[in-house]
User: Which sequence fits this backbone?
């Protein structure tokens, strides 16, 4: 089944809230080789003006993926995940993800383009803490064409 | 302390950073990011699907490269935008590998005291990220 272009413009129900804690932030920061004390030391984070320890910017992908799952796993979307390659990723941070956040994420399908037998799907996920916007993530995945 | 806008010029180097990556690093990243795709952990599986070996998550590579911009900024919370294309893979054999990252200031936004920086990440002699840019809020 080809990728279903009628999903363009659809926004899926928000997922969450997901609690963010210091252990989640420290584990992620350590895994990507981040050394800034604002990830590990609440005192250092407060001295820099934050409420508590903050995450590296790319932790937002965790919530992007939790949210976009509803789309990519929708049987009507026509996405064969074994043929998916991550093409592009970007983040806009309205503020850093911070320990104590209760994040909610909602994914919208922005565009689906076909090129050379492949489908390029761009999705956007808005991540918020209550009414406060935290980050906007954009992913482009490529679904490789058939044999 | 975040870097001062007045201390920054277009063309400035961000310095260099080498981030080692072992298979255990990828397991830790998988647990922290929730991306448990076996191509990033299981050599037999990766080879079975036609990959040369275990490969790093593209998002691990993006995250690791971004730490250079965060260290240059002086405060990781100052990365207000960050984006990349995934152009090549980081192969991680049993003995591990490493990601080499360099960066340069591409442009400055005087009104908002923001710098756009471009990062270059290489592994095994290949550039692995394309158009990898961050916008950094300076003081």
Assistant:
């Amino acid at each position: 089944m080809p990728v279903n272009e009628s999903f363009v413009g659809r926004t899926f129900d928000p997922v969450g809230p997901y609690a963010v804690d210091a252990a989640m932030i420290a584990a992620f920061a350590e895994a990507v080789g981040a050394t800034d004390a604002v990830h590990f030391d609440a005192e250092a984070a407060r001295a820099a003006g934050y409420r508590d320890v903050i995450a590296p910017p790319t932790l937002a992908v965790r919530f992007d993926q939790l949210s976009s799952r509803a789309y990519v796993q929708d049987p009507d979307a026509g996405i064969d995940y074994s043929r998916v390659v991550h093409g592009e990723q970007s983040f806009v941070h309205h503020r850093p993800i911070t320990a104590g956040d209760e994040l909610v994420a909602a994914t919208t399908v922005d565009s689906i383009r076909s090129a050379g037998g492949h489908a390029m799907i761009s999705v956007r996920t808005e991540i918020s803490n209550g009414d406060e916007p935290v980050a906007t993530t954009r992913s482009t995945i490529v679904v490789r064409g058939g044999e | 302390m975040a870097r001062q806008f007045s201390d920054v010029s277009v063309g400035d180097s961000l310095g260099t950073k080498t981030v080692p990556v072992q298979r255990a690093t990828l397991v830790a990243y998988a647990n922290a990011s929730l991306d448990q795709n076996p191509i990033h952990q299981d050599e037999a599986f990766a080879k079975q699907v036609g990959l040369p070996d275990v490969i790093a998550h593209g998002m691990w590579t993006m995250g690791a490269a971004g730490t250079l911009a965060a260290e240059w900024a002086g405060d990781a919370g100052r990365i207000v935008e960050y984006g990349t294309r995934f152009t090549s893979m980081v192969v991680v054999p049993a003995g591990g590998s490493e990601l080499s990252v360099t960066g340069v200031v591409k442009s400055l936004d005087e009104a908002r005291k923001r710098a756009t920086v471009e990062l270059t990440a290489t592994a095994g002699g290949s550039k692995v990220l394309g158009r990898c840019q961050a916008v950094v809020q300076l003081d």
User: Anything to note?
Assistant: Chain B has a mean pLDDT of 97. DSSP finds three helices and six strands in chain B. Strands of chain B lie at 13-21, 79-86, 97-109, 114-123, 126-127, 129-137. The helical segments of chain B are 23-33, 43-48, 58-73.
